[in-house]
């Protein structure tokens, strides 16, 4: 009989096996979402049954890469939530511009659209030369895309609307070169990016930053892991540093909540108190 | 102890709609008097910059309407709205979670995603109601609710502003009831 769905206990078993065999720990992810992603992959890759799937995940070194890529969500866009970027442009960058050196960490940067958005803001604020943008993700596959900076041309056209809503005044097409149906973002935007794998579940802090951006990553984690990652961010932020999360993410129920003030009630950007 | 047990047994009403469904939902909430149920609305809409649908609906009803927040526990007497541009999922412990993955049936939030989660978690306690709309979302979700032992309701296409979605549902399954828009509130109020 062909199995049509992976059950809860099987998901749990598989995730525990993956920790032991490959070191990737998805056991603290929100179950409903992980289960959907696993079932989606199970159907997409035409496995016969759970054992067939499990064997492949555990023993095929190439397949685990695909597994990580497909289980994590890599949907993103440039200047996503334009008013968020407007606030970064108007309230955060003017503060950062007064520092001799700016270090920004994009944690869970996925395919890099939001990192390039930040690079554009830094360039327009005239502070690119003294900035470093650390772009990290658990998934090595998406980081190749960050390094290439090549996206479908039709997406770029759609991103330009977001750019304008975020307060952008330039001709957005001046930031990329189009060829056929692809667009390559300017090398200059990438010149201050440091791209590397980093696993928020198991890896530690690696620097001190003035701004940490982690958008729509925490929604996939359970409460315990959310708190742990927020502590990691807190330990990686300088005093008076800024923390930026996704539009449905919160710190008010976490232990670090009291140490931060929100800049604007509508946008998820906080500043660390002294 | 007894109280906790009762609290865990409340019925869950999942309502999915697309084009032309907001009027039906508004009318239903206006007549709503059943506080034993938890209601979850998955309404397709253009991702507005700030979601004000909860505010709009709140003035129409005695129930508390709010956007579902991630990690929030679903409770009876509340009407939850799936936030614009996120899929709304439900965990085993009855808490909501959000997901920004690919659109499903060209939709985010997708009715199928929320209906399937609800079926998985609440089983026969779920009633799925599919309203007016112009796409095929929601039908797979209704089928999972059916498989889990829950009830399936489809708006009568004749009373729907956009009949494609309920018609498509009727071509794929036989619901427990087909209701005119004006009958939906009565039905929900009658859920024990």
Overview of the structural elements:
The complex is a heterodimer of chains A (274) and B (192). Chain A has 274 residues and is of the alpha/beta class. Chain A contains 10 helices and 10 strands. Chain A folds into 2 domains: 64 residues, no CATH class; 191 residues, Vaccinia Virus protein VP39 (Rossmann fold), CATH 3.40.50. By secondary structure, chain B is an alpha/beta fold. Chain B has one domain: Methylesterase CheB, C-terminal domain (Rossmann fold, 3-Layer(aba) Sandwich). Helix content of chain B is 31%, strand content 21%. Chain B has 7 helices and 9 strands, in the order αβαβαββββαβαβαβα. In chain B, the strands form 2 sheets. A 7-stranded parallel β-sheet of chain B has the order 3-4-2-1-7-8-9. Chain B has a two-stranded antiparallel sheet with strand order 5-6. In chain B, a hairpin with a 5-residue loop joins strand 5 and strand 6. In chain B, helix 4 packs parallel to helix 5. Chain B is globular, with a radius of gyration of 15 Å. The N terminus of chain B is likely disordered. Chains A and B meet through helix 2 of A and strand 6 and helix 4 of B.
Core attributes:
heterodimer, A: 274 residues, alpha/beta, Rossmann fold, 2 domains, seven-stranded mixed beta sheet, three-stranded antiparallel beta sheet, globular, B: 192 residues, seven-stranded parallel beta sheet, two-stranded antiparallel ribbon, 7 helices, 9 strands, 31% helix, disordered N terminus
